[in-house]
Design goal:
By secondary structure, this protein is mainly α. It folds into 2 domains: 1-67, no CATH class; 75-167, Chitosanase, subunit A, domain 1 (Up-down Bundle), CATH 1.20.141. 61% of the residues lie in helices and 4% in strands. The radius of gyration is 16 Å and the shape is globular. It starts with a helix and ends with a helix.
Length: 167
Amino acid sequence: MTDRERFERLIGFVLEHEGGLADDPDDPGGITKYGISLRSYPHLGANGIRNLTIEDAKGIYYQDWWLPLKCPQIHDDKVAQKYLDTCVNTGKRTGTKILQRALQMIGYRITVDGAIGPKTLAAVNAADPQALLVAMRQQQKAHYERLIQKNPELKKFRRGWMARANS
């Protein structure tokens, strides 16, 4: 199986969570389709976001997310998928910190710096995937709770965020 085939098999998890077109005034990302937001891709413009196809979104996720996050180097499919999904929802740096904190929770001496380097990748691939996934879910939920604590208006997203974290 090629890396692109693996990506195609795993990306549905992200697309299912992200859904279609959303334009919630309280969403800091602004108008969003398939998780591709105007804030992150201002060069597309609002109409470009509205007209995005699922294939366009997959191309963006592969080039701008899957490859830079080094997901092809993560051996376990569920861990790679969860890491990608977390980063898409929280941002690359924050998602990587969530992963690194999860690694610390299960006993790995990893620096939480938000960079997916060789030490983090080695720990990810050495870790028990199930234990790592449990820890990632806990760290993701804690992240959302901190966001809500800082900005109570975000509480309306809590249910969806927690469901996503638990997936």
